[in-house]
Amino acid sequence: MLCACAGAPLPAPTAPSAEPMPTATSAETPGSAGKPRAPQRLDPAFLRAVNEFALELTVQLGRQDAGQNVFLSPANVAIALAMTANGARGETLQSMLSALNLNTLDLETVNSNFAALQALLVRDEPGATIAIANALWARAGVAFNADFLQRTQRFYDARIEALDFDQPDAPKTINEWVRRQTNDKIPAIVERIPEEIILLLMSAIYFNGKWETPFNPEFTQDRPFYLLNGTTKELPTMYRSDDFEYLKGDGFQAVRLPYAGGGVRMVIILPDADRTLAQLMDQLSIENWESWREQFSVKEGQLYLPRFTTRYDKQLNQALSAMGMTEAFDDGRADFSGMRPVPPALFISQVRHVAYVDVNEAGTEAAAVTSVEMGITSAMPTETFLMQVDRPFFFAIEETSTGSILFTGLITEP
């Protein structure tokens, strides 16, 4: 979100390059990205960078919240930050692109690739649904650069509306949009809007996929799950005996579970019994990830996987700063003059991410919302395998054709 110092008067929208925001209305068609743009060819360097960001952010949060469940949509965070970067200039822009590992690409190329990625990801098929929606909510009466607004609409299909943040029902209006875009899985992200906030940039993603081969509920039984503190917990654990895409790696086992249609799949990586989740996180580099993707082969085996549901609500300022995005959060150094050139200056006061996932016998439902608050300153082998996911593990949900990582999770207690 963009904010202003308490008590500081909001500037009048008189800058010639700025334009007022359209007034918020109650009418809306859920899922603005449900109208995909014509797909373009994705730059391999862009895809690699976005996946590298996904792994780095997951590891940063896993270390910050050691011992807790971590679940997020790195793709959703990246879209929100890229949309915000269109208002950044100078070192602030470079630090944001650097955090996204996109600093070797110009902003126009970044925008074009994010537009293409969203168009490729969005789908509404019997076995898998992915919806993406973006929005800008501005304080009524505050003008922003026309070029900034046009870019968010052109490349991110963003809904752009002005809202009287001083009205008691303003948070409700924004939260209702969030609720609709996430199919009721995330009911709210805004409790109150401080007077220094003048702009909220939001991105929402929703996924619902049915397993290509469902787990038979009759085989689900309570089995022990070994927690980090040495104790065990009895959990409803699903079971399948089948041919799987499987990998036995250095210190871990991994399996890929496709959703119906084959366009999306879950990747589950389980550390060996003598290894920890923290040690696995040390291996989650883009180089290893790309190497692992090529090493899966079909094997017959048995898989035990606990059902789990988790919610995650996290401010990302610390993690993103550790990844190089420091200037954007510094009210004395941030340069967002691309949003509005007139003083007072803008900075990012908070990046907040809320995510939800439910994994069961039928499939997976997941959703996430990222809010950026802007403020003003003063091969076929014959052997079989057994994979018992009975201890902390990592998983990801990726789009198959691009390899784009949509969601990641570190599950310590299902």
Detailed description of the structure:
The chain is α+β, with helices and mostly antiparallel strands and 414 residues long. The chain folds into 2 domains: 2-24 and 42-210 and 311-376, Antithrombin, Chain I, domain 2 (2-Layer Sandwich); 217-309 and 381-411, Roll (Alpha-1-antitrypsin, domain 1), CATH 2.30.39.10. Helix content is 24%, strand content 35%. The protein has helices at 44-64, 74-85, 90-99, 107-121, 146-156, 170-181, 277-281, 286-293, 317-322; strands at residues 2-3, 18-19, 70-72, 123-124, 128-139, 144-145, 159-163, 197-210, 221-226, 232-249, 252-258, 264-271, 297-306, 308-315, 346-359, 363-376, 384-388, 393-399, 405-411. The strands form 3 sheets. Strands 3, 9, 10, 11, 12, 13, 17, 18 and 19 form a 9-stranded mixed sheet that branches. Strands 1, 4, 5, 7, 8, 14, 15 and 16 form an 8-stranded mixed sheet that branches. The chain is globular and about 65 Å long.
Q: State the share of residues found in helices, binned by percent.
A: 10-25%
Q: Identify the CATH architecture of the largest domain.
A: 2-Layer Sandwich
- Secondary structure tally, helices: 9
- CATH class of the largest domain reads Alpha Beta
Categorize the overall geometry.
globular
Strand content is 35-45%
Enter the CATH topology name of the largest domain: Antithrombin, Chain I, domain 2
CATH homologous superfamily designation of the largest domain: Antithrombin, subunit I, domain 2
- Based on CA atoms alone, the radius of gyration comes out at 22 Å
